[in-house]
Amino acid sequence: MLEIKDLRVSYGQDVVLNGIDLELKSGETLAIVGESGTGKTTLGLSIMRLVEGTVRGTIRFNGKDLLTLSDNEMQQIRWSQIAMVFQNANNVLNPIYTVLNQIMEPMIEHGLKSKKEAQDRAAELLGYFGLPQNRFTAYPHQLSGGEQQKVLLAMAMANDPELLILDEPLSSLDAAARAEVGNLIRETDKHCAKLLATHDLDTVSKLADRMAVLYGGKIIEAGPSQDVLSRPRHPYTRALIRAYPNMTTVKDLQGIKGQMARPVSGCPFHPRCTQAIDICRTEVPKLVWNQGRHIACHRGGIITLLSTKNLTKCFGSLKAIESVSLHIEAGETLSLVGQTGSGKTTLAKTIMGLHQPTEGDVYLEGAKVDSRGRDFYKRVQMVFQNPGESLSHRLSVLEAVVEPLDIQEIGTGEERKEKARQVLGEVELPRTNDFLSKYPHQLSGGEMQRVAIARALVLDPALLIADEPTAFLDASIQAKILKLLLNLQEQRGLSMLYITHDIAAARKVSDRIAIMLNGKIIEEGSSNEIVAAPKQGYTRSLLRAASTLRSTKSTIDEGA
Amino acid sequence: MFSKGNIVTYVIAFLFILALNFFLPRMMPGDPLMAIYGDEALIAMTPELKAELVERFALDQPLWQQLGAYFVTLFQGELGHSYYYNAPVLPVILGRLPWTLLLVGSSLVLSTILGIVLGIESGWRRGSKTDRSMLAGLMSLNGFPDFFLGMLLLIAFGVTLGIFPLAGALTPYSGLSGLALLLDILRHLFLPVAALTLAHLAGGYLLTRNTMITVLKEPYMLTAKAKGLSQRALKYRHAGRNSMLPVVTQTGIWIGRVVTGALFVELVFAYPGVGYLTYEALLARDYPIIQGVFLMVAVSVLVINFLIDLSYPKLDPRVSYAY
Amino acid sequence: MHIDLKKEIKESGPGKIGIIILLLMIAVALLAPVLARYDPYQQSTASLLSPSWNHWLGTNHVGQDVWSRLVFGARTSLLVGFGVGILSTLLGTIFGVSAAMLGGLYEKVVMRIVDAFIVIPMVIIVILISAYIRPSILTLILLLSLLSWQGGARIMRAQALSLKERGHVAAARSFGAHHFYIAWRHIVPDLGPILLVDFIYSVRRAVFMEAGLAFLGITDPTVVSWGMMMRDALSFSYLNVWQWWLVPTGVALSLTIIGLTFVGHAAEPVIEPRLRGAEVA
């Protein structure tokens, strides 16, 4: 019913929309998601042709290109076939006319109803949207924010439009009003297609069938809302969801590195993308259909960094790990949770090549890893449990940190020292010469582990395997190290394989959790799902046994 | 915008007017009776009449007693006695009043409505050639004093072209009635109204235009446009109605201006209204008439302003009765 | 307010025209004795003459040279205009700022008086008073000023009130400054642009009033005034004389007022910044 092709809108030099492709079917609700200033409102306004800038492209509504219509024809379509619910601000409604009057107005103006019919219908609409009858003849400034929003909705539905554009319909409301108005929007006129512009993911999940994410003037991901929200496949979408506080997500909030700015060429997100490659800088990716989703990414979305297939390792007759198949995507954290002896460390070491697998394969970025050379170690690094042991007591901080560079013969001495300083800064340690010449026994446990992490970062790996990194540290230090790891992920786009026995800590840093028992992966899924709805009994018992501050007399621990 | 509906203000203004009326003649040197009635009047008065007046106004008593007498006579509806017309002041004024009301009323209505409409159209097209020329044109027009405009019109249309009559409100002794009479009155009314209207057009125009410019930037204008309303509906029902509100508040002040303008215009066209009466009284030093007119005009203006203050909340729902 | 008043006026088309007209009128007024060719008061028997080389605009009904009277009339209008402008703006500023600064009962009383005077039409009062006292130019200036400072007072008070709340005023108060100091150094300078606009409109109103009152015949007959000239010309409107007697006088008067209007209008955005600028999307 609505088809937008290559819509470009600019105000003078400022390009707001840079080639938008969208489709909306009759009765469908599509949410346009984006942060402030990304052009969601402009998109809505351009469909109504209320935009003051330069508009190019095609907007096909029921077969007609709206951009080619005359002013008169457009005037007739406005509010009779396409209507808009504006963002509720001061003075969106004319202050000198009653709300009833303002709802009647478009009915009468478009010649669709007589005055009496219009009045009845307006009253009906207001009643449907839950405005008390004695408020019908009130003036806009006499109504509360929630009531004004209802009026805007009722007014938009006045002529039973086929397409309704809603601009942040719930953001000015309090929680109770939100639920009420949200329901009204969802239930009203199922035949009416709705285009919803919002930054609020809660609104999207409640109201929208499909969603499209807007960034840098382009749609970068689009698909069924529940799919996209639970499994985002564009780095920006994932980052957006990670940054949004909600009751479903267990992982801590993370931001997106860098700032929103439009690069001159290439993919609009590339300056902030942690899996960008050369082509991303030069060419703009097209929005293409890829396994049930529209995605605009040269790499087809978030890539799978590492995967294992049927990985098995036996020590004699002992099957330490058996048929382990997992995958880790770029920029995500997979936590491997299991008790001592479950095979977690064996798995990590097998992946690293410290053990040879008995069966099965490891794939790095799609390519099978036969032998692990320098290239492999440039991409995958490990942080061990006990920094006291993993750092040689003979080497100073500087020497320990530059060791990988020395081994791989990268850079000059000065450059290596500079790099060391840089990574030490990243792990929030001092960069002074004084500190660089310290020895491990002069450092605290937390400092030592940070040095170990710095050392692991010095080759700029894509995947960091952290084996119980906080096992030997105090709780408060543990918190800092976990935060540090999250920050590093945010800044560098690091993927992490986080190995631990502590599911309570794991869920704070993981996108996905895999439960390991007796060498096998018995359950795996997004951290939200595992914590809220574990399938396996063992998982449930792990959750029950996990640290909690409530008394254990309560019957079920939901892992809250 | 002056404070809305503060009764105290109007009371003070009223008292000031009364005080002025009272004190001015009594502050003049010489015989207060002469100051009140004018020396020419006194010449014609008999000693008995003089004595009676002295007694009535308590002119030989202390000032505060005079004040009392003044108020008493005032509230008896007695505004004094005009020597010149040899009649009480009030009826004389009332006899001339209808013409002035006609003149002022028509001009006020015309200039306000025309000013508003032009202001809306100009504001709608802000920056365009039409707007700029209208702005320059009306501001220039505003610079012409009403009497000058009146004289130009009189000379152009009355003297030179002879389309309109040169003086009076109707043709005397014509014995016309019904429609013919109406037309006659209109012909005599046309030029004075034109002069007064043109002179005061700019006030409403400028205010409306300025308000219009601000209003057009408001969010509800975009909402209205989104509703697919016609240009006319946008311009008048939405923008225009909102732009009118300041004009209404100012109408009170403008009435004062138009009324004083009527004074000059009546003079130019020898239009037999209260203004011309005042002029004649000035020439003849007929103080009772002058005072009577002053009192009536000032009080009327006050009352009208007060009424406008009361009715403003009906037009702008955002304002509640701020008493 | 970081708005350059001079720049505002210079950039406005009408503003420029207004300034030019004003300067022209001021020049004429100042140079009147030079420009006039006869004594404006000297009557002669050569009455109602048409324009000629001797009398550029002919003569009036008592044989006075119209042109000479015209240029001297400029003096009267501008003198009264600027006189009232200065005095009225001064009074308005004093009362308005003091009301804002002192507050309390003083403010209430002053503002009530101000409001009361704004409602009453000024002209009528002047006419009434003039009926009793024939005002000289000085008296006229005084009278008009006393009746017109109120408008400015309101604006000044409003501005002073908002300025009072600004940071630098609070700072000065914290140093122990008293009201007068604060008013003089911190508030009045910031009032500059508004003062100017109020002044311009006061001048305009006064020029209007003086001409009108002269037209009615209330002002001092010994002083040449454009209004009075027009009044004399009225009685002879059936003759041709209006062309050179009435029209130039009326035009001169109107031009002066228009000039003031234009300058005032150009300076207005200083107070109401939303009116500035050409139409942009």
Care to describe what's here?
The complex is a heterotrimer of chains A (560), B (323) and C (281). Chain A is α/β, with parallel strands linked by helices and 560 residues long. Chain A contains 21 helices and 23 strands. In chain A, strands 6-7-8-3-9-10-12-11 form an eight-stranded mixed sheet, with helices on both faces. A six-stranded mixed sheet of chain A has the order 19-20-21-16-22-23, with helices on both faces. The mean pLDDT of chain A is 85. With 323 residues, chain B is mostly helical. Chain B has 13 helices and two strands; from the N terminus they run H-H-H-H-H-E-E-H-H-H-H-H-H-H-H. A two-stranded antiparallel ribbon of chain B has the order 1-2. In chain B, a hairpin with a 4-residue loop joins strand 1 (81-82) and strand 2 (87-88). In chain B, helix 8 (146-160) packs across helix 9. The longest helix of chain B is centred in the C-terminal third of the chain and has 39 residues, at 231-269. The two termini of chain B are 16 Å apart. Chain C is an all-alpha fold. Chain C contains twelve helices and no strands. In chain C, helix 10 (192-216) runs antiparallel to helix 12 (242-267) and helix 11 packs antiparallel against helix 12. The longest helix of chain C has 37 residues, at 66-102. The radius of gyration of chain C is 22 Å and the shape is elongated. Chains B and C meet through helix 1, helix 7, helix 8, helix 9 and helix 11 of B and helix 5, helix 6, helix 10, helix 11 and helix 12 of C.
Distance between the termini of chain A: 44 Å
In percent terms, what proportion of residues of chain A is strand? 15-25%
Mean of the pLDDT scores of chain C?
Answer: 80
The side-by-side strand order for the widest beta sheet of chain A comes to: 6-7-8-3-9-10-12-11
Low-confidence blocks of residues of chain A: none
- Helix/strand order of chain C: HHHHHHHHHHHH
Number of helices of chain A: 21
Chain pair with largest interface? B-C, 63 and 52 residues
Mean pLDDT score of chain A: 85
Which runs of chain C of at least 5 residues are low in confidence (pLDDT < 50)? 274-281
User: What portion of residues of chain A is helical?
Assistant: 25-40%
Number of strands of chain A: 23
N- to C-terminal separation of chain C? 25 Å
